[in-house]
Amino acid sequence: MITQKFVNKVTLEFGRLIEYDHLWEDNPAIKEAMPHLRISKPEIKKKKKDDDLSTNVVEPDENEWKRLIDDMKYVRALEYVLQNAPVRAKDPDKKKKAASMALSTMMKIKTSEISDAVNSIPVPLRDTLMKYVYKGFENPKDYSSSALLTWHEKVLAATGLGSIVRVLTDRRTV
Amino acid sequence: MTQPVPPRTSAHKPYLDAIRATLQAAFCIENFESQVVERHNKPEVEVKSSKQLLLNPVVISRNQNEQILIEGSVNSVRISIAVKQADDLEKILCKRLMRFMMQRADDFHILRRKPIPGYDISFLITNFHAETMYKHRLVDFIIYFLEEIDKEISEMKLAVSSRARMCAEEFLKKFN
Lengths: 174, 176
What we know:
The complex is a heterodimer.
Chain A: H1 4-20, H2 28-33, H3 53-56, H4 62-70, H5 74-83, H6 92-108, H7 114-120, H8 123-137, H9 145-159, H10 161-169
Chain B: H1 13-26, H2 44-47, E1 58-61, E2 67-72, E3 76-82, H3 88-103, H4 105-108, E4 121-126, H5 127-132, H6 135-173
Antiparallel strand pairs in B: 1-2, 2-3, 3-4
Helix pairs in contact in B: 1-6, 3-6
């Protein structure tokens, strides 16, 4: 026995189905039935611009970075790369390039100067710095692990365990 | 608290400190039942049923040969260790020793029966282990294990070469 309540419920469910599953809209039977069903044409919610990652991707410019390196302003160069780290990018090449920039800068900074460097880097960027330290560990051939361990120690002293937790949990990987 | 773990200062202190800090951060595990099968409780780091339940895996390396991989999740942590193996004899000894331990993984509780490919031994620590054992002691144990493994393998290597020398001496005495 099909009651009105049942019809309403089914219509509601069906409307929801059409709203979320865009393939239904092309179905000719659906198109024909739409004016008869008591549901208004669903509005296609446009993807919010925030999700569009292409607009949010920043990248450290290689020339700018080279300029800073040639001027021997290593800390400033590192800060520049961290500021423009491609954390939101999906392209692995971009990430690799930025990682190589960041890590080679870190390798150039002398061991005795590391703690000063860490302290001069602004607090929000220290998480990204920690992310790059762990990235460097994945490539012990190219980047000296002992230097990275020193970096790890100094960044940990400056930021605490929170930065490691953020490295583990943050989806915006470096 | 029984038997305190003896603190050791070695040349590898920064490496062990980094591992300790990372483990302390990754050890935030709690009970989480399977969302796929009812009444089941599986370690998410093994099952990987949903990306939301996993943490980013992290590597810490001392040099090219020694590495440790830490993969976390909501209810479990998997720690894989690549032990230093300098020459063929050490490779064989390491393999034997790890196999010995892994075959007795049931009694070990936190050990995994098979290592992750690329590593020599793996630990799987779930929230149930964390409930019955102190988390900071588990971290201490992992660090202690790392220190001891190198020592054990070098001790065994020495033992092998001294035994071989004694055997050779005895044998060649006959020809004297």
